[in-house]
Every structure is written in structure tokens, then in C-alpha cells.
Write a structure and sequence with these properties.
This protein has 132 residues and is an alpha+beta fold. The chain contains three helices and four strands, in the order H-E-E-H-E-H-E. It folds into two domains: 57 residues, no CATH class; 71 residues, no CATH class.
Length: 132
Amino acid sequence: MTSREQFEARYPVPQGVEWSPESSRYALVQISNARNAGSTIARYEAYVHSWGVWNASREDVVIDLPLIDERDWAVTSDEFGAMREGIEIMARRVEASGLKVSRPPRPAAPERACHGCGVHGFTANCDQCIPY
């Protein structure tokens, strides 16, 4: 459910007010008669103000995702990939609800060194540098 859907579920849209996708805001679309015009405009202004307050209340909320490193978990790389994917799905759902998500940087993969000659990577300098 988006932030706007949550807002509208909690605070029903007043009569004569509609969401305008073109301007991404609420718009006054109908005033039934001159006698009720003042209260309709007042309700519209109050509703627009409430929407602004709703958005401002979500502006400063940031969800920090945990930093997970494959070396910290006794799982296969497939299981670890599923963990990362699950966290990313959760992050997208949090963002869809109008909150911000702070993603930690991915840890750099450790640079591997040959056990035979000590060179980083496999350079075929010794019989242990051959990766097969």
C-alpha cells in the first residue's frame, strides 16, 4: 500500500476533492453550491495541510538495512543470494510505503592470493597458480 493509499484509508477524501495525477496533489474539483462553498474550501485546505503533514512525518524516517557479509554466515552462496534478495524485496516494500531506506555498501570481495607463490590472482607462475 502506497503512502497516499495509507493516508486515504486513515483520512477519507472529502467530497469535491480528488487526487490529480498530473500535478501529484489533491485538487478541488467541485463546489456544490455557493452556500456550502466556504466549508468545502476549508475542508479542502485542511485536507491538503494534513497531506503535507503526513508526508513531512515520513520525510525523516530512514530504515537502515543491515550489512551482511557472506563470510559471517555458514550458508551456501545460493542461500546467501536468497538472503540478499529477501532484504532487497523488503526494502522495496518499505520504500513503496513512503519511507526511505539506507542501503549499506556491498563489501568488496576478498582478493585471492596463490598459496604457492603468493601472487594475487592466478598467474600460472607456479604449479599451484593453475586454477584447474
